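#lab-general

N.A. 3:47 PM
ok so I finally got the sequence cleaned up, no stray characters, all 245 residues accounted for. can someone with queue access submit it? mine expired

B.Y. 3:52 PM
send it over

N.A. 3:53 PM
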Amino acid sequence: MIRSMIPNLFTLGNLYCGFLSIGYVAAGETRNAAILILIGMMLDSLDGRVARMLNVQSPLGMQLDSLADVVTFGVAPSFLVYSTVFSGTGYTGLFIVGLFPLFGAYRLARFNITPASTSMKHFTGVPITAAGGIVALMTLFTHWIPNAVTMVVFFALCYLMVSTIKIPSGKDIPMPKYGTIVTIFLLSAIIVVWQTKKADWPFFLYIAIPLYVVYLLFQFVWKKRKYVDENGNPTKKRFKLHRKQ
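B.Y. 4:20 PM
back already:
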């Protein structure tokens, strides 16, 4: 029982990051709010892999994952982008940013009823996790990226989430899922904090960077484990992948 709950703890951690992100936006600490969403991305990527490693995949975990994604990568980025980019537009902007979680929730529901054989080959529309991560990444650097550019990307992501555009899943590419976005974030964050005083560094950056190191180490071990059999001999057989949106 305890073993089966371990992957769900990662999922709940992802959900809690979304909740905390909303709270930090309300407190005016938007950079910490953005970093929390990126931390949520790492936890979201790990829960499925941990479930497969422990062989405890379950329908409960899949449904819990979708619910957590709506909060962390739908609602939280909406509050964040409103506070940093749309705040000057008043209630009009509030209604506009509300489209993001609506489209994201629709995209998740559509994914959940998609045959597994189809979803393994490609995504239909941009995954909400990637969309929320991109929004968080852009709001983290609003002093470099014009608001108009962020708005255009925001609307584009809203459309792409519910579109029928086929996007390669990238599951066969030797790169951690969502790793590209998180890596760009970390490299950009390092550049920014290098040019600022230590006292101005977002607090959660101290958590995000060590967590990312652990994340990469886990990915390396997981990738290596996928290509060896139970006796440690090399094999080309791949483990069946758990569906992730």
